Amino acid sequence: MAVDKLQRVLFAPAALPLGQPASEVHGGRRSDPRVALAQAAEHAGFDALVLAGRDALGGPRTGAGSASNLSLATGPGDPFVLLGAAAEATRHLRLGALTRSGERHPGVVAKAVATLDVTSFGRAVHLLAIRSGSSADSREDGVLGDRAAEWELGLPVDVVGEELAVMKAMLSTPAPSFSGMHFQLDKAWNEPRSLRPVPPPLGLFVAPGGGPARQTGAGGFKAAAEALAMAPVLEIAVAGELLVLDLRDALVAGRPDRRDASPTQLATDAANLVSAIRLTLDSAAASSGRLPGSTAILALIGTALPARRAELAAIAAACADAGALGLAMALPPGRLLAREASEPRALAEELGGWAAMLERPAA
Q: How far apart are CA 222 and CA 152, in angstroms?
């Protein structure tokens, strides 16, 4: 599957809010709201649905317990299991899983990706989330052990590089071996494997403007953008086919340095950031012998809230003009409820408006 088919993407949590039933019975059949969401997204015109594991997607926050808190640590939900069910209910929609870097062994993740790719007939995508700042505070140690506490944007990039290398080997080699500082493979049993000649796309998910700067405004948007543009993680990102820039924190009006920003200014800031990242990626690609543009940029521009439609439309257009291959929206908190399974037409109509906003004009 070519990444140029990922131009309109919807992100959503794999977990449901606590207290919500995981499924409901409608017309004698049990249906899951996340499967209903996949069907609605396909009917609405989205190219892909990405389900995020616990705390992988994160999101803009204005304080603990606030209505805008998008923390996804709200209940169980493995994205691969749910996407397997969604694969049976859709035909063309690309299906992506977003998991936190360092949480699982990359060999295990690669087997899940390959299985999903087989069962979906070549529609799988996978993203590794690298959260910034305090996001590590709530995570379990995972495969990083004590190093999880030091996990910040771009640190430690050696782990990220090894994760991508292991996954690429698992997705393209019958019995791969790998010997690194953090991960090892020894002629790994590697079935099932993707049946396609080109393995499923892999990518990184990073969030500029998070961490302490989000809370204090220290350094502001410009400093956060410059830090990401120079981050060592971008040198690792060129090993993948896709880099997702989560711009929700960087552009949210609730940031201390963004309260008075106009939609035009937000759009300009977003375009400048995408352009800077594009230059850095192309430079890193040239250094590693790859062609410019080998790693595509997908911009996650905001949460699908009607009150922000005009602002998000301006940001979407600016990011596309600046070189983002695709654009993405995140489902707002609390939107994915069990009752959506009984209202697929209404949900598809709502999502259709957002998909139309993200559609790039024909060249």
A: 19
> How far is the C-alpha of 52 from the C-alpha of 34, rounded, in Å?
11
CA distances from residue 334 to 34, 35, 36, 80, 337 in whole angstroms, order as listed: 13, 16, 15, 21, 7
Q: What confidence tens digit (pLDDT) does each residue in 228-263 have? A: 555 666 777 888 889 998 888 666 644 555 566 788
Residue with tokens 């090993």: 239
> Is the Cβ–Cβ distance between 36 and 344 less than 8 Å?
yes
- State how many domains the chain has: 1
CATH number, residue 108: 3.20.20.30
Note whether residue 283 is domain-resident: yes
Q: Do the beta carbons of residue 243 and residue 296 sit within 8 Å?
A: yes
> How far apart are alpha carbons 177 and 267 in whole angstroms?
45
Taking the whole predicted model, whether its pTM rises above 0.85 is answered as no
The residue segments making up the domain with residue 264 are: 3-358
User: What pLDDT does 142 receive?
Assistant: 44
Long-range contacts of 306-309 (CB under 8 A, 24+ apart): 309/357
Tokens of 227: 């830090």
Alpha carbon distances (Å) from 124 to 60, 181, 195, 337:
27, 28, 12, 24
